[in-house]
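Example with several molecule types.
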Amino acid sequence: MTISLIVFFLLAAVAVLAALGMLLSRNAVYSALFLILNFITVAIFYLMLNAPFISIAQITVYAGAIMVLFLFVIMLLGAEKLPQNTSIRWQYPAAVVLGVLLALEFGYVLVFQIGGLSTAAALPANFGDPKDIGGLLFNQYLLPFEVTSILLLVAMVGVIVITKGDKTTR
Amino acid sequence: MIPVEYYLGLSAIMFVIGALGVMVRRNPLVIFMSVELMLNSANLVFVAFAHAYQVLDGQVFVFFVMTVAAAEVAIGLALIVSIFRSKHNINADTVNELKG
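Resulting structure tokens for the full complex:
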């Protein structure tokens, strides 16, 4: 009971600090590494929430594939440190004001609107079994699953067209 | 058992940080990372509610969000590479015209 709460707060602190590190670090490579740390803590949250399949997918897809792609592009373009000169002077104050407003709205909804969402009875022992998720994915959600494959195909073709386009004109 | 409100609070904090990153940073790669952070916080809420209501559909939706995020990142990074090839600069303030 209390141990899980302690683990939750430690992991939450790591996740928030990693997100802040991503936001504040000047070097884009450090930002990407902080974001990988955040993704791994979120994967551990998924494990605590009885979602082992999503947790492993998080690590392989997000921390593995997507962030490696980010790191490759950062190093390929040499975009680690861009000059942070903003042509809009009121951008930082406006961003801070809007962020505080968003946080206040979240806080209001969390405190006043959501109440009594306490978790119900004990979970069944095999909740979140990858077998059940696979069954759901290939029976009830078969059409969205296939549409997803078409989306990935379109993305792949689009990437090839975008990155090859200016070579043919040259 | 951790209350679902705690997960909602953590996810809200992560979402606000991601939104601040989109508004403040001028490096488009970091802006994309902030978008990923926001998607990730939404995923956390999906899984937390799937746990709270003992329904697996939330986890399936997280799967779909992940694939859409992967497609979005691939397209976005290809656009950034293409912009860098034509302008040799990817600062978000200087990319303000649609000419190649």
